[in-house]
Amino acid sequence: MSYAIIGFGAVGQALARAFARTGVAVTVASRRPPEALAPQARAIGPTIAPRPLRDALAAETIILAIPFAAYPEIAKAGGDWQGRIVIDATNAFGVPSEELGGRPSSVAIAQALPGARLVKGFNHLPAGVLASDPAGHGGRRVVFLSGDDDGATARVAALVERLGFAPVGLGRLEEGGLLVQARGHTWAPLIFQDLVKFT
After folding, report:
1. Of the candidates 75, 129, 134, 141, which lies 20 to 30 Å from 163 by C-alpha distance?
2. Strand pairing partners for 26?
3. Percentage, residues of the chain above pLDDT 70
């Protein structure tokens, strides 16, 4: 399975640290050229590989760690999304609900990526918390997941486990997805909830 993180700001780098900590190789890309990402990637670890956006978008599993407004550009750049797993780590804070047609923000992204198997995840924690070791307080830090494709959600849950976190399913995007997204200028109730699952 090949992985890519699209977006290499605070959240993208926090996710890259989770991959590096567990030795899982991941490609990173943004609108900037790969050489601009190389210093941060090297500082994070040898399994973090900067690549051109087009190359990164060919991965089997793609994590969107981009500003929400950038998703149409990424949708066009990605070509054929059929069958690929996309993890939506974006937040649509400040986007009026009318602009989304009353849909959860992840549904809007899913509709822009025809054929993609979209799962909402990794978006509810601040980057600094996400970058830290998920083991602590006798358990593992929770990552909430929601999606409409059970198989894709299971694959993402396995990745979450591999990265040392504890996946907690919230159901479909229209249900659980609403618990971990912004609505206009209001955060949903599970945003910023740093929870631990005990083993």
Report:
1. 75
2. 48
3. 100
What is the model's pLDDT at position 16? 98
Beta-sheet pairing, 26-29 with 48-50: parallel
- 7 torsion bin: left (phi>0), alpha (psi -120 to 50), beta (else): left
- Smallest Cα–Cα separation from 15: which of 131, 173, 138, 137? 131
Note the pLDDT tens digit of each residue in 43-78: 999 999 999 999 999 999 999 999 999 999 999 999
Segments in 4-147 forming alpha helices (H): 10-21, 34-44, 53-56, 71-77, 105-112, 127-131
Q: Report which of 73, 163, 60 is spatially closest to residue 116, judged by C-alpha positions.
A: 60
Instruction: Calculate the alpha carbon distances from 25 to 3, 45, 109, 150 in Å.
Output: 7, 10, 26, 25
Range of the domain at 88: 3-198
Domain count, the chain: 1
Q: For residues 134 and 141, give the distance between their C-alpha atoms in angstroms, rounded to a whole number.
A: 5
* Cα 106 to Cα 147: distance, rounded to the nearest angstrom: 9
* CB-based burial label for 10 (10 Å; 0-12, 13-18, 19+): middle
Distance CA 130, CA 191 (A): 13
Predicted confidence (pLDDT) at residue 183 exceeds the cutoff of 90 = no
- Across the strands, what pairs with 45? none
Identify the CATH number of the domain in which residue 130 sits.
3.40.50.720
Report which secondary-structure segment, H or E, holds 166: strand 166-169
